[in-house]
TrEMBL record:
It comes from the Bacteria. PANTHER family: DEP DOMAIN-CONTAINING PROTEIN, TELLURITE RESISTANCE PROTEIN TEHA. The lineage of its organism: Bacteria, Bacillati, Actinomycetota, Actinomycetes, Micromonosporales. The keyword Transmembrane applies. GO terms for molecular function: monoatomic cation efflux transmembrane transporter activity. It is a multi-pass membrane protein. It comes from Paractinoplanes brasiliensis. It is found in: Membrane. Its main location: membrane. This is Tellurite resistance protein. Gene3D superfamilies: Voltage-dependent anion channel.
Amino acid sequence: MTFHLTNPATPAMEALPPIPASSHGLAHLPVSVFATVMGIGGTALAWQRTAAALDLSPLPGEVLAWTSLTVFAVVGVAYGTKAIRYPVAVRREWRHPVMLAFAATVPVSLLILAAALLSTSRSLSAVLWWAGAAVQLVLTLDVLRVWIADSRFEPGHVHPAWFIPVVGNLVVPLAGTTHAPAEISWFFFAIGLGYWIALLPIVLNRLFVNGPLPPRLAPTLAILVAPPAVAQLAWLRLGGTVTDPAARILLHLATFQALLLLVQAGALRRLPFTLSAWAYTFPLAALAGAFAGASRPGAAGYRTAAVLTLAVVSLLVAALSVRTVVAIHRRELCRREPSSPSPPRAEAGAQP
């Protein structure tokens, strides 16, 4: 995968040797592959919440939860092997101005799994949650430190996936209220909410002023749905109610972001497949769960919205799963892209 930067690399980056051209394809496995776990695990949570709201069988949600854990194990072994065999590739990826935000898919996956497995294996959920919460805190601090200190970052490097480290903090309370004192969940919730609000104008400025996203990052527009939707779910876990002003504001904002994504669906569906297409799944799954949580007597519209959104994200997960397997068979996920001269502005369009 090749990225072009207009600023020279920092001394720390220059000290890293290049990845040999003859290296195995595993060296080019992107960390964003963990987005598959987020998508499947998020859909499991949406099924569980919808089943509870409509008094349906919890079996689909449980099956998806264990499926997402299996996918995490496979992906984790693959990426762990990459880290052992090609540590320089991992260090470059985790310090790249575009790819850095995708590193947060690792702890977020753990936190989503912890929430999805909470009802079926509380002990396993606790292990996953504590690991995910610890890594999430460390990674959030590290990402913010790099954003502050690294002079290579430019407006062209900003993209909606910058919200992923923030969303991770908002996911913590989904299982955290069960596994730890409430203050810990409030701590993470405050971080997520505060930095989401702070990052929102930065990301919107990038989208409004700096031109459209490169095609391979265009699906990350769906991530705009995730922060308010997950924040609403976290608010309810922290003791809020669906009729609270905060819960209503967050749900309606997430709904608007989904509508904004819908009006762009025609252009987005024509994009070629990349792993970034999994960015559609978790935000929509979170929205389906938020709709299900808001359903109550006299609010049948939320129940209908939950079912429709859940149907869409379930079909999307199925289609993307098939397409990802095809991409693995064709060796498209770990393909090294040829180098090319640097363009006049930062190009963020390589495989995320």
